Amino acid sequence: MKKNYSPKPLFLERMQSLLKDKQDFQNYLEILKKEPVHSLRCNTLKISVEDLKKRLEEKNWKIKQPFKDFPEIMIVENELLPGELGRALEHLLGYYYIQEIASMLPVLVLNPKENERVLDLCASPGSKTTQIAAKMNNKGLLIANEVKFGRIKILSANTERCGVMNILITKRDGIALCKKFKENNLYFDKILLDAPCSGEGTFRSVPKGLEMWNIKTIENLSKLQKSLIVNAIEILKLNGELVYSTCTHAPEENEEVIDFALKNFENIKLEEIKLPVKCRNGLTSWNDKNYDKELIKTCRIYPQDNDTEGFFIAKIRKIK
Q1: Quick check: 284 and 293 in contact, CB under 8 A?
Q2: Hey, where are the domains in the chain?
Q3: Tell me, what's the pLDDT at 1?
Q4: Which residues contact 26 (CB under 8 A, 6 or more apart)?
């Protein structure tokens, strides 16, 4: 059973302002009380989608593949025992990664390819890192960076379990790392900036976050995210693409960060995002602030729309 936590009044007020429609807001509050679905991603570096599905169905797990174009994304529709998904042999062997569906979407937008040079700037625990490596088929260079040593160990363990071979793990402050790469003329085809955030989109799976929510945290993170994105853009190749994502709904950490990047770089543009889930357009204003009209090309993913967690995704291309 989920323990109920009380959302703070300011958080509720802000979510009501974002969702506007009364029923939509109620649907959002209701889905927070619902247990998340059991989702996983087949690790195609180690096993084919067909073989994994067969193995899991032999356990009498009912497997659903919700997206025709992305058969590696699976949902186990059975009721499972606590921890059963993580204890299965197939998980221990690295045949699948337990990953929330919304968390898989930024890499689908990034669409890394074989033989590209890719940077995952804030990589731990490695869900998106291992997904990138699978998309690259272990060919090319994948640099996965993490600033905290404890999280490096988790990142390393997960990439090793999943058979990632084309990776270089770095331990550096993300801003300093980007500056070092620029000094050495090391530029990237693709960059994933899955930024540290306030995690509002994960309150369904981590309800304790409702009690820890704080507007000051959002304001401080927004400053960090702006520094990270401007330094990351500096090391993007011409025609290179950067995907910025967070698992929060706060506009200060989402649209405001992208608007800041657009104001600071004349050589970037926002790209359209196509995903197999319901995406709402990004905001062009929030409270007393107006953002670039191009922000409608960004994607807001709400839990009540797709039975997932919440996410924000933007795709930037360097054009000159």
Answers
A1: yes
A2: 102-318
A3: 45
A4: none
Averaged pLDDT, 42-63 = 98
Pairing state of beta strands 140-145 and 116-120?
parallel
Residue 28 token pair: 């959002």
C-alpha of 160 from chain center: 21
pTM above 0.85, yes or no: yes
Q: Using one digit for the tens of pLDDT, what is the confidence trace for 251-266?
A: 999 999 999 999 999 9
Pick the CATH number of 102-318 from 3.30.390.30, 3.50.50.60, 3.40.50.150, 2.40.170.20: 3.40.50.150
Strands 96-98 and 116-120: unpaired
pLDDT of residue 2: 55
Residue among 78, 76, 81, 54 at smallest CA distance from 66:
76
Give me 264's structure tokens. 């600071």
Rounded to a whole number, what is the distance in angstroms from the first to the last CA of the chain? 53
Residue 68 has φ and ψ, to the nearest 5°, of -55, -40
In this structure, are residues 306 and 280 in contact, taking their beta carbons and an 8 Å threshold?
A: no
247 is catalytic: yes
Rounded mean pLDDT, 75-93 = 96
Neighbour-count burial of 254, counting CB atoms closer than 10 A to its CB (0-12 exposed, 13-18 middle, 19+ buried) = buried
Among 227, 271, 277, 218, which residue's Cα sits nearest to residue 249? Answer: 218
Residues 6+ apart with CB under 8 A from 30: 304
The one catalytic residue among 122, 162, 178, 247: 247
User: For residue 46, how many other CB atoms are within 10 A of its CB?
Assistant: 17
Strand partners, 176: none
